[in-house]
Amino acid sequence: MLTPKTYTDSRHSSNSANLNSNDEQPLNVAIVHTADQGGGAEASTLLLHQALKELGHNSRMFVAAKRGNDPDVHQIERTRPFPGALRMARWVEDWTGWQYWYQPWFHNLGQLIGNADVVHYHSLWYGRDGFADVAALPRLTAHYPSLMTLRDWWMFTGHCAHPALGCERWKTGCGQCPDLNLAPAIKVDGTKANLRRKQKALRDSNIRVTTVSNWLAGEVRQSPVFQHKEIHTVHNGIDERIFFPRNRTEMRAKWNLPQERFIVMVAGQSVEGTAGIAKGAGDYALEAMTLSDADVYLLAVGRSSEKVLAQWGRDGRAIPFQDNPTPLAELYAAADVVVVASLWETFGRVPAEAQMCGIPVAAFVTGGIPEIVEHEQTGFVVERLNSQALAAAIRTLSAQPELRHELGKQAVTTARTRFSNLAIAQQYVTHYRAEIADRKTGAGGRK
After folding, report:
1. What CATH class does 248-418 carry?
2. How far apart are CA 360 and CA 347, in angstroms?
3. Alpha-carbon distance 47 to 29, whole Å?
4. Where are the domains of the chain?
């Protein structure tokens, strides 16, 4: 039996001074997500959790995998009602393609959460085994004022978090999936049944819905799963106390990078192809740098950095994935330009962080990136998959250091205005309070 968790009352804590004077009492917020550390989604969710506490609210995270040491992050334990239950459930899933259909512990999530004022759901998919059952949402959202933030497509596809390029079957109910291997993969095409299950769960759930970009909100509005929901946008927050302009000379010396070279940073870009495209984002970035004829020193950062540098075959440096955000911020500050050749981005954390550090960005127009990078104001955004256009942007930035400086200055101003972490957290608090108030009038997230 799960033990109910309680929240420490912060009404008289020192943090409550951060609350606006016209606010009500501090909120008890429960955040549900896959993990507290990992990729960009995890960074954004953990940052929100921390910012809420800084604003004087009580926040706890409930995750499928706890990797950090924050005492307010709790792992959702996978319990089995009888020996062999999980093994049997996996067999059924493999046979039918019914993704995450057996997650009994998630139905008891309320016992773990306890007395929250609001529950904020983020990503509810997790690898092969999962942790969340969408069928539990109607009961959970009936008990708690609830908000769901969509960071990818999983909640409105038949199995995948990112559909194959050009696939729009999610708009009409899925089925006959073109690629069952897209994460999270399934072995048998149960996509139509999975999507119907999500549609029923969301139709019966009393929940407010946000997305991390206006672009993703536009995608969500085309989904039958969310056709009866009002969709709001709240961008991801960036911690401006970590991501800020630093002295470039000092950062290059610290990381043993050449002082006089034109350094192009490529972060989190792979050279592995994806469904429908033979090349990865890193391939397009490298191709554009080659076509630019600029004397580029490549700074590759991330899990694929060694592969990216090897494929580049010229001067450069590979830095592995950074769990700690401070080294990443220092590396941004050491670069002249950050190139983002992503094939899709629901938000675009890398360009947002780079601009917070005062570094101009050259990127493809895809997903939420145009909401972050203003063309010829904070960087350059060009047609997706157009390596020649991206090369022209790199060439221009290489040849005009004064332009880089001006774009970088404007980038900082724009990023701080739009993506300041505490301001983003306050936007969520506004939604929390609105949902709580709507529950009192009988409206809530059904509208």
Report:
1. alpha beta
2. 17
3. 14
4. 14-237+421-446, 248-418
pLDDT of residue 369: 96
pLDDT for residue 17? 43
Q: Tell me phi and psi for residue 363, to 5 degrees.
A: -145, 160
* Whether the Cβ atoms of residue 40 and residue 372 lie closer than 8 Å to each other: no
Give the model's pLDDT for residue 39: 86
CB-hemisphere CA count at 13 Å for 80? 9
Q: What is the pLDDT of residue 128?
A: 86
Residues 6 or more apart whose Cβ sits within 8 Å of residue 384: 343, 364, 365, 366
DSSP 235: P
Q: Could you give the strand order of the β-sheet that contains 337-340, starting from the edge strand earlier in sequence?
A: 316-319, 296-301, 262-267, 337-340, 361-364, 379-382
Spatial distance between the Cα atoms of 223 and 198, rounded to a whole number of angstroms: 11
**What does 274-318 look like in DSSP terms, one character per residue?**
BTTBSS-HHHHHHHHHHHHT--EEEEEESTTHHHHHHHH-SSEEE
Asked whether this chain's domains 14-237+421-446 and 248-418 adopt the same fold, the reply is yes
Note the pTM of the prediction, 2 decimals: 0.91
Per-residue model confidence (pLDDT) at position 426? 98
N-terminal to C-terminal alpha carbon distance within the chain: 35
Domain at 14-237+421-446, CATH class: alpha beta
- Per DSSP, the three-state class of 100 is coil
Torsion of CA 38, 44, 50, 51, to 10 degrees: 170
Rounded to whole angstroms, the Cα distance separating 118 from 28 reads 7
Contact 47, 70 (CB under 8 A): no
pLDDT at position 323 is: 79
Q: Residue 407's Cα: distance from chain center in Å?
A: 25
Residue type, 328: L
Would you say how long the chain is, in residues? 447
- State which residues of the chain have pLDDT below 50: 1-4, 6, 8-17, 21-22, 274-278
Torsion sign across C-alpha atoms 202, 442, 27, 52: positive
Contacts with 185 (C-beta within 8 Å, 6 or more apart), sequence order: 128, 159
